[in-house]
Amino acid sequence: MSTHFDALWVEEQPDGAFRRSIVRRSVDDLPTGELLIEVHYSSLNYKDALSATGNRGVTRSYPHTPGIDAAGVVLESAVEAFQPGDEVIVIGYDLGMNTPGGFGGCIRVPAAWAVKRPAGLTLHESMALGTAGFTAAQCVDALLSHGVHSGEVLVTGATGGVGSIAVALASKLGLTVVAATGKMDEADYLRTLGAVSVIDRSEVVDASGKPLLRERWAGVIDTVGGAILATAIKATRYGGAVTACGMVASPALELTVFPFILRGVKLLGIDSVNPPIAERRRIWTLLADEWRLDVLDRIARNVTLAELSGEIDAILHGQQRGRVVVAHNPTQN
After folding, report:
1. Omega of the bond leading into 63 within 30 degrees of 0 (cis)
2. Relative to the CA of 150, which of 29, 102, 243, 281 has its CA 20 to 30 Å away?
């Protein structure tokens, strides 16, 4: 077993700027934890980009290795539940935030953070999904659990990681998906994932100030927050449900209580960081089995660690489509 690995390293400079580089690290540098895992794949999320640019709301202390997603092989285990050679997935908790993350070739974490890879997914597929896919599945699951089985379902931020997988998954499960995006040149891409129609995001931003809008949406999967989420809620049909899982547009939500008390609209918060381990296993099993997607190759693409910094800049500027998988060793499956 090699005791050294490459990692993306984010350092604060004397002038307050943050510099990214690839460094060689030792497993002895990692924090204590019950599992030492060789990371085969990670993936890029917006939270990783924030960490990689010095956002103290995500990462308190630098230098640091981001990466809130990791999939790989257990090298050492201090618990009976995992053995060396087990293939595992780790997302959420503190990984990549204040604990060295998946943008390094090895991580050391508590055993409670890990889920064994379901038989229906490869390690690569698990990271093509990653936190984004897990979150999308939580959103779809919440809509189905709250009675959304027919009618139009709006997906906002549809070309992003969560949005792309939400479009594909909701469509696979028989929902009528309307995809909203600021990238209308990607309409064909969204239709190949299953969107029945694609609309410009300007169509889901209401500036009238009305407390309620014409009822349209049976359900909503919102990935952006702000005015788009508020508008979607005001246009949701009686008894409909809205999931909220992102705030890239804004964390603010300006609306009245009318959609909730006059139409019985349900606003469902989605958290992918700290759900119970049994819930994690259930969602991953669904994604590996009856919810398995056959369009991941259209959604995800591989990059190397050396190419990652450019992708971080792209996601921060809204220039990315779908998912970016970080392949620590491209020959691995």
Report:
1. yes
2. 281
Helix then strand count (H, E) for the chain reads 9, 15
Judged by DSSP in three states, 145 sits in helix
Question: Which ranges of the chain does DSSP label H, i.e. alpha helix?
Answer: 46-52, 123-145, 161-172, 187-193, 226-234, 258-262, 277-288, 296-299, 308-316
Q: What is the helix, strand, coil percentage profile of the chain, to 5?
A: 30, 30, 40
Nearest CA to 43 out of 7, 8, 67, 74 is that of 67
Tokens of 154: 């709006």
* Segment 61-104, tens digit of pLDDT: 999 999 999 999 999 999 999 999 999 999 999 999 999 999 99
List residues bridging with 70 in a β-sheet: 90
Q: pLDDT tens across 312-333, in order? A: 999 998 888 999 999 997 544 5
Quote the pTM value: 0.95
Q: What are phi and psi of 297, to 5 degrees?
A: -70, -20
Read off the amino acid at residue 138: Q
Domains along the sequence of the chain with CATH: 4-117+295-327 (3.90.180.10), 131-269 (3.40.50.720)
